[in-house]
Amino acid sequence: MSSTRTLVSPAVLARPRGRAVYWTVFTGVVLLFALAFLFPVYWMVTGALKSPDEVARTPPTLVPEDWRLSGYTDAWDLMQLPTHLWNTVVQAAGAWLCQLVFCTAAAYALSKLKPVFGTVILGGILATLMVPAQALVVPKYLTVADLGLLNDPLAIWLPAVANAFNLYLLKRFFDQIPRDVLEAAEMDGAGRLRVLWSIVLPMSRPVLGVVSIFALVAVWQDFLWPLMVFSDTGKQPISVALVQLSQNIPLTVLIAAMVIASIPMVALFLVFQRHIIAGISAGSTKG
Asked: What gap in Å lies between CA 252 and CA 56, rounded to an integer?
C-alpha cells in the first residue's frame, strides 16, 4: 500500500498542538495572499474617494480623511462614461457572439466531421499563433479601410472571429466527447446541426464559459485596435476614451472612471466563476 508524503505528517496533525500550528500557518498564508490581491483594488477604489491634494500627498493616507463621492459622479458626467460603456458593450457582445458561433462551428467540424485535409487546416490555424499580433495590425487596418468599416462595430467583430487559441480550446474539448453518444443521436434521426445543438453544446458549457470570458475580456481591454479604427470620439470604447478624455481631468476623477470601467468585467467573473472553474478543471483533466 503506497503512502503519500506530505510536508506535515498525519502524526503531527493528530496532536492538538500540531493542528493549532498548522491551521495558524495556513490561515496566515491565505490572509497574506488575499491581502496581496485585494489591496490594489482597495487602493484604487478609495483613491477616487479622496481629494486631489490627498491623493498626491506623501506619505499617502491609507484611509481617506474626507470621503467624497464627487469623483465618481464627475467621472460619470465629464468623461461621458454611459456612452463609452455602451459602445464597449456593443463591440464586446458582437465579437463574443461572432466568435462563439464561428469558432464553435469550425471546432466541431474539425473534431467530429473529419474534413479532408483537416489536420493540415488545423496546423495552418495554429501556425497563426506564432505570428506577432503587432505584425497583423497594418494588414487588418488596410482590409477594414478598403471595406469601408472604419467607425463601425464590424471592424471589431470580424477580426475577433479569427481566434486560433479559442478554436483549438474548443476542438480539444470536443475531442473528449464520446463518439458513442453522437452515434446514438444520429441513429435516432438527428442531423449534424441537431447533434451540435442538442448534444455537443449542452455538454460543452464549461469550455464555452471559458471561451466567452476570453473573448469578452480581449475586446474590453483592447486599446490599440479600437484607437486605430474609431476616429469618431462618440463611438470609441471605454479603453480608448479613458486615454483620449484624460487631459485636464483631476486624478481622482480618472481613478474613479477606471474603477467604473472595471466593474462589468469583475461582475461578469463573479457571476460565471463556477462555469469558468469547471471549464478549466475539465480542460486540465481531459486534456
From this structure: 10
Query: What type of residue is 182?
Result: L
Q: What angle do CA 48, 222, 272 make, to 5 degrees?
A: 75
Whole-number Cα distances in Å, 101 to 28, 42, 111: 45, 38, 15
DSSP for residue 174: H
Q: At a CB cut-off of 8 Å and minimum separation 6, what does 214 contact?
A: 163, 165, 166
What digits encode the pLDDT tens for the residues 68-107?
A: 888 888 888 888 889 999 999 999 999 999 999 999 999 9
Report yes or no: 14 and 20 within 8 Å, Cβ to Cβ.
no
Supply the DSSP string of 77-132, one letter for each residue: HHTTHHHHHHHHHHHHHHHHHHHHHHHHHHHHIIIII--TTHHHHHHHHHHGGGS-
